[in-house]
Design a protein that fits this description.
Number of helices: 5
CATH class: Alpha Beta
Number of domains: 1
Helix content: 40-55%
Low-confidence stretches: none
Order of helices and strands: EHEHEHEHEH
Strand content: 15-25%
CATH topology: Alpha/beta knot
Mean pLDDT: 93
CATH superfamily: SPOUT methyltransferase, trefoil knot domain
Shape: globular
Number of strands: 5
Radius of gyration: 15 Å
Distance between the termini: 24 Å
Length: about 160
Amino acid sequence: MKLRLLAVGTRMPDWVTTGYEDYAKRLSGDISLDLVEISAGRRLKGTDLARLKEEEGDALLAALRPQERVIALDVPGRQMATEDLAATLKDWQVDGRPAAILIGGPEGLSRRALDRADEKWSLSRLTLPHPLVRIVIAEQLYRAWSLLKGHPYHR
């Protein structure tokens, strides 16, 4: 199964790249995770943030492939335990469609991006830094995958 993480923001600190890549490369065989970075709009004094959020959302939507299942990260979305994520991942594998997980910019995802989503997830009610979310998603997908494989990582 092919998973793509579509994230607003480029030029992440080295620790973000290292953390994300470490977990993404651990996924092997029947699942892969690829990162697609979407340029964030410039946030200057007086910038229309609502317009910027819509533009970033349009860029995310343009990066989607027609057959992909779309999962939007959104604070009021569904929260899952690792076991629930593992069951969801297994269902996706059976379904056979690739999936794209959307991470918005600092203002979140646009209404159009949220409306396009097949599912909405919440990692937490806490506000997490967007760079850290990349690592958390990669780690949780790896943890769920390792649970399905009977790997000892998830104890």
